[in-house]
Amino acid sequence: TELRITTTGVDGMRYWNSASAVWQPGDYPIITSKTGGTSWYYTVPAAMLKDDVVYTVTARALDYAG
User: Fold this and answer.
1) Whole-angstrom distance, CA of residue 33 vs CA of residue 23
2) Contacts 24+ apart (CB under 8 A), 50-57
């Protein structure tokens, strides 16, 4: 499963780059951690969240059932 966390401000859309822990322009998919056969999670670092900011989380999952 991949996540994309975005926010839009005066300088346009920014993606959360989890590898370098910064907001950047461009597309930065986040690979989630798998728990069991049907669940996943991603722990959001508290430092990335600011008051009065809207964040959008988009998830994309693959079905391996065949």
Assistant:
1) 21
2) 53/7, 53/9, 54/7, 54/8, 55/5, 55/6, 55/7, 56/5, 56/6, 56/7, 57/3, 57/4, 57/5
Q: How many beta carbons lie within 10 A of that of residue 55, not counting itself?
A: 13
- What the block records as the tokens of 34 is 């798998």
In tens digits, what is the pLDDT along the chain, a chain of 66 residues? 788 999 998 788 999 999 898 999 988 999 888 887 778 888 988 888 999 999 999 988 877 665
Amino acid at 31: I
Q: Is this model's pTM higher than 0.90 or not?
A: no
